[in-house]
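Assemble and predict.
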Amino acid sequence: DTAVSQTPKYLVTQMGNDKSIKCEQNLGHDTMYWYKQDSKKFLKIMFSYNNKELIINETVPNRFSPKSPDKAHLNLHINSLELGDSAVYFCASRNSGGNTGELFFGEGSRLTVL
Amino acid sequence: GNSVTQMEGPVTLSEEAFLTINCTYTATGYPSLFWYVQYPGEGLQLLLKATKADDKGSNKGFEATYRKETTSFHLEKGSVQVSDSAVYFCALSDRGSQGNLIFGKGTKLSVKP
C-alpha cells in the first residue's frame, strides 16, 4: 500500500493550459503539504493544510490554488501554466501531534510546460 | 529566521570511501534534526533523525550527531556503496517553524565503482 500517492506522475502540457495534481495519504495524518523541487533539487514549501484548513501559504503566484476536500486529500490546481512552472511537485504529510516532525513524501509529479 | 546550510555538491567518491556531508543550522529553541535521502526518480525518505543535543541518529551505516555547541548535524558513512548515490537533504523542525520542516539545498552524492 502506497502511503502518500500522487497522480499523475508525469504531466506534459502547453503554456497557458490549466492542470491539476492530486494527492492522497492513507496514514491518518492531519497535515499535508505541497513542495516544489526545481531543476537544482532545491525544495520549496508552497502550501500546508491542517485538518482541511490552510496554515501555510508561501509566496506563490495566485495561479496556484490548493484544495483539501478532507484531511486525506490535498490537490493542487494550476491556472495559465508558464514555462517556469516546470518542476517536480511533491506532496507530503505528517501527524501534527507527533513530536518529531517527520514528513512522508509521495513520489512526485513531474510537470513539463512547453 | 530558521535556516539550514549544507555543503554544496556534487560530491563524487569511489566505492568504500569515507563520506562526510556538512550541515549547520540556525534555529530558535531546540529543533529536531533530520537527514532525508532522495534516490533518482523517487520522493524523499527519512534516513535518520535526532531530537535533542548529543543524540546520534543512525541508519543503513549512516550516522549524524546533534551538536548544539557548533549547531551542526554532519552526515557520515565509513564506506559508501554505489547504491548510496542520491541527493541528501538536511532539515530541521522546531516550534519556530510550527513543527514544519525546513530543508537545506541538498547535496548530490555520486559513488563510482
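Chain A touches chain B through 23 residues (CB under 8 Å).
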